[in-house]
Fold this sequence. Notes:
This protein is α/β, with parallel strands linked by helices. It folds into two domains: 6-128 and 287-299, Rossmann fold; 131-283, 3-Layer(aba) Sandwich (Rossmann fold). Helix content is 42%, strand content 15%. The chain has helices spanning 11-26, 52-63, 84-94, 105-114, 129-143, 159-171, 187-195, 206-210, 230-236, 244-247, 270-273, 280-299, and strands spanning 41-46, 67-72, 97-101, 119-123, 150-154, 174-178, 199-203, 215-218, 255-258. The chain has a five-stranded parallel β-sheet. It has a four-stranded parallel β-sheet with strand order 2-1-3-4, sandwiched between helices. It catalyses: carbamoyl phosphate + L-ornithine = L-citrulline + phosphate + H(+). It comes from Methanothrix harundinacea (strain 6Ac) (Methanosaeta harundinacea). Carbamoyl phosphate binds at residues 50-53, 77, 101, 128-131, 259-260, 287. This is Ornithine carbamoyltransferase.
Amino acid sequence: MNLISIRDLSPGEVEAILDRADELKARRCDPSARSILAGKSLAAIFEKPSTRTRVSLEVAMADLGGHALYLSTKDLQLGRGETIADTARVLSRFVHAIAARVYDHKTVEELGRYAEVPVINALSDLEHPCQILADLMTVRERFGRLAGLKVAWVGDGNNVCNSTILAAAMMGMEMAVAAPPGYEPDRKILDLAESLGGRTAVLADPLEAVRGAEVVSTDTWVSMGDEAEAAKRLGAFRRYQVNSDLLRHAKEDAIVLHCLPAHRGHEITDEVMDGPQSAILDQSENRLHSVKAVLERLLV
């Protein structure tokens, strides 16, 4: 089994992973957890640098008794022209799973096609399933449920937005996306969410999107690989900042999510990010616990 898309899991499997993540979080210091993945190894391939993805994968494997190898493309023959297929086949003879944080979604799909061990999408340009599991865990911690909640995404219709749309459709959540023209979510993702029974409103007005929302989520306006468009993007997204004025249109008990890193003063203000409605640090921590549950599910 691979985790290339959040759609590789059924709603029941998502709930089971979240249940297990809650258990692992509660018993973080339980030494018996170190036997869960004893003797297991994870190859973690990084085309893009990371803080949360790298640390969560390495600490998760260590906490569960396994071992993670950090592999940048400079450390692999991929950087000298070896095919993705050959890399997948060879790594499968050495390790028990492969995680890949890549630019092109096709790269992680090809790894999944040729590897003989589970492959985890640790971020691609299309989806970020590991992030959305942490987000769902955080939302469920705060509200005790997922179904029936409204999630408002404000900003770029990027990979995290795509996974949020799919997860919302799967888990019975209402979804509204506010994005400037030209930066809307992937059309195929929207169509897939609709086929799953999802309700996704794509709007130009961020006030309308957050109205009545329990969850308000955002991300950087300039992702890795978009740096050449920075000036253009900063201009296009100026109206899409998550600030206290915007948050007043959400429900009184709404929480704010940001997958980080944040560009304070751009997509989110200090007042909101450090304020009482922010669940961002819990969300970040939950990357660890949720990926532990994923690794256990795929490797045991």
